[in-house]
Amino acid sequence: MEKNSMKQKMLxxxxxxxxxxxxxxxxxxxLIMCKSSEIELVTSDLAMHEAISSxxxxxxxxxxxxxxxxxxxxxxxxxxxxxxxxxxxxxxxxEEIRKIALKKRE
Length: 106
Prior knowledge:
Blueprint: E1 8-11, H1 14-22, H2 26-33, E2 39-44, H3 45-53, H4 63-72, E3 74-76, H5 78-82, H6 91-102
Helix pairs in contact: 1-3, 1-6
C-alpha cells in the first residue's frame, strides 16, 4: 500500500488562497507553511486565478508566500476535473472572494 493513498485530501478555495497571500492568518499559514505528511493540499488553476486576480495594489502581497504555496499545494486543472471551461472572472466574483477572505476571523 502506498503511503500517499492514505493521505487525507483538503481542497483549498480561492478565498483561503487570497487570505494566505495577503494576510497573517496563523492557522492557515501553519497549514500551508508546515507541510503535513498526513494531509495533501489541493487546489485548482481556477481557484489560483481567482485569488491572484483579486489581489489589489494596496494589499500586502508577499511573493515568497506564493512560492511556498506552489511548493506545498497540488494544483489541478479545473477543466480536466469538471470537463467545463473556466468561467470569466467578474468584478462581482472578485469582491465576493475578497469579502470572504478578509472577513473578521474569530
